Amino acid sequence: MPHINLLPWREQRRQASQRKFLSIVVANVVVVLFILYLIGSFYDGLTAGQQIKNDYLNQEVGQLDSRIVEINNLSQQKESLQRRINLIEELQSNRNLGTQIIDEVVRIVPAGVYLTSLERKEDLIKVIGRSESNNRLSQMLRSVESSYLLERPTIQGIVTGEQSSRLLSDFTMHFYVKPYREIKVAERDN
């Protein structure tokens, strides 16, 4: 007898194919979601690791910044102390400066020049005196120029003496005391 299948087998096959297709789609979706979860976890791990590195670097930078502030403070303290030391050295050397100036003036004044007044205002020294000749004043100017302590001599004026002492000329001279550092170098060289 001929075999006739009256059951809806095509329907059942179609439904089975649809179920199979849906299960494959669901499996693919699950696999894709699992892969996306793994990729997301991997990148989250990388991000977390980088954040830990960034936090560590920020902490180290903060410590270095505090050290830089300490170093700057120490540098300022060092500069302050160096200024104080220089000031103390200058005061120490200036303690005897008056005596040194008098000694140097005695050394530079040649015979035939007589001082009547010596006045000091800070670094300026004003000398008033009498001289037997202008050559002696020139010699005094050269002595001031070659001095380790004095510099920049200028003669303000030479006036021929009064009637009673025509042999002597009155003069006024100014010169300056060299700055402390130049004096220190000159003393070391001598």
Which strand order does the major sheet show? 1-2-4-3
Helical fraction equals 55-70%
Order of helices and strands: HHEEHEEH
What Rg, in angstroms, do the CA atoms define?
51 Å
Average pLDDT score: 86
Discrete helix count: 4
Q: What structural class do helix, strand and pairing data support?
A: alpha+beta
Total beta strand runs: 4
Share of residues in strands: 15-25%
How far apart the termini lie comes to: 144 Å
Largest β sheet strand count, sense and barrel closure: 4 strands, antiparallel
Shape estimate: rod-shaped
Unreliable spans: none
GO biological process, one term: type IV pilus-dependent motility
Protein name: Pilus assembly protein PilN
Keywords: Coiled coil, Membrane, Transmembrane, Transmembrane helix
Pfam families: PilN
Main attributes of the structure:
single chain, 190 residues, alpha+beta, 4-stranded antiparallel β-sheet, 4 strands, 64% helix, 19% strand, transmembrane, transmembrane helix, PilN, Extracell_DNA_Util/SecSys_Comp
Short description:
Keywords: Coiled coil, Membrane, Transmembrane, Transmembrane helix. By secondary structure, this protein is α+β, with helices and mostly antiparallel strands.
